[in-house]
């Protein structure tokens, strides 16, 4: 696993945005997997700035969704579809035609999950999947003890995750749905490049367990250790519990600039 320690969230956002831009320059119709929440916002802001400056043409880029709440009405402002459209698709000048996501309003949710896995495969697979990490080590909504071979499926959220997400629902946990559709760990691991961004001291323990701990279902993000091209980008606060932090700094500093992430 490649670990890159950056000074702050803005530096992490710029680094990942340039990685995405470099991918799009090589493959104009790349399928980019995006995450929601506050952590990846610097990535989207930096990528949008590059597009507006004419540094990269994203007109053929496709965007896909990592997860979705079950049961929120279509167009609900806190559905992940609405969030991705608002934060990523529209600022990049793309249309909904470029966007793939699971149907959280489907009557047959298991069928919708299977359909989304098929859609990703038919699209040629995800070229780069951006991930966040929960304080308990979850990725997507694969909570602790999720199968490391799991596919896109419905999951019940833990109370901790609902409490963490209540800030998006007027700090009212009762408004946070109990269920989500999420790409499974097995689905996530099929992306060609996984990039996990973590910032802040609150993520330090989860990062350390994911990077330096054993591969175990109790820490879902530890599965990234098994991926052939996984990059973890962390600020100094999120890196504060890494025993090998100095090694990671030296390794990245010695990496040829042309190689990228």
Automatic annotation (TrEMBL):
Pfam annotation, one family: Glucosamine_iso
Active site: 67, 136, 138, 143
EC number(s) on file: 3.5.99.6
Molecular function GO terms recorded: glucosamine-6-phosphate deaminase activity; identical protein binding
InterPro entries found in the cross-reference section: Glc/Gal-6P_isomerase (IPR006148), Glucosamine6P_isomerase (IPR004547), Glucosamine6P_isomerase_CS (IPR018321), NagB/RpiA_transferase-like (IPR037171)
GO-annotated cellular components: cytoplasm
Reaction catalyzed: alpha-D-glucosamine 6-phosphate + H2O = beta-D-fructose 6-phosphate + NH4(+)
Record's keyword annotation contains Hydrolase: yes
Pathway noted in the entry: Amino-sugar metabolism; N-acetylneuraminate degradation; D-fructose 6-phosphate from N-acetylneuraminate: step 5/5
HAMAP family per UniProt: GlcN6P_deamin
Function text: Catalyzes the reversible isomerization-deamination of glucosamine 6-phosphate (GlcN6P) to form fructose 6-phosphate (Fru6P) and ammonium ion.
Protein name as annotated: Glucosamine-6-phosphate deaminase
């Amino acid at each position: 696993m490649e670990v890159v320690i950056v000074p702050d969230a803005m530096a992490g956002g710029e680094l990942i945005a340039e990685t995405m831009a470099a991918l799009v320059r090589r493959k104009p119709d790349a399928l980019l997997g995006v995450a929601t929440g506050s952590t990846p916002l610097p990535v989207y802001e930096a990528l949008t700035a590059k597009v507006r400056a004419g540094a990269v043409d994203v007109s053929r880029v496709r965007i896909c969704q990592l997860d979705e709440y079950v049961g929120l009405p279509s167009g609900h402002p806190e559905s992940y579809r609405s969030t991705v459209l608002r934060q990523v698709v529209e600022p990049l000048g793309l249309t909904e035609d470029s966007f793939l996501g699971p149907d959280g309003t489907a009557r047959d949710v298991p069928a919708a999950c299977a359909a989304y896995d098929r859609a990703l495969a038919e699209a040629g697979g995800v070229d780069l999947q951006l991930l966040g990490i929960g304080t308990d080590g979850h990725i997507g909504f694969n909570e602790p003890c999720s199968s490391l071979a799991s596919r896109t499926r419905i999951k019940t959220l833990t109370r901790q995750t609902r409490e963490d997400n209540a800030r998006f629902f007027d700090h009212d946990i009762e408004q946070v749905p109990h269920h989500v559709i999420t790409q499974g760990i097995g689905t996530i691991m099929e992306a060609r490049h996984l990039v996990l961004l973590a910032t802040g001291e609150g993520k330090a323990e989860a990062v350390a367990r994911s990077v330096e701990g054993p591969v175990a279902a109790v820490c879902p993000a530890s599965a990234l250790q098994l991926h052939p091209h996984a990059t973890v980008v962390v600020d100094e606060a999120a890196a504060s519990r890494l025993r090998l932090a100095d090694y990671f700094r030296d390794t990245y500093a010695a990496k040829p600039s042309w190689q990228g992430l």
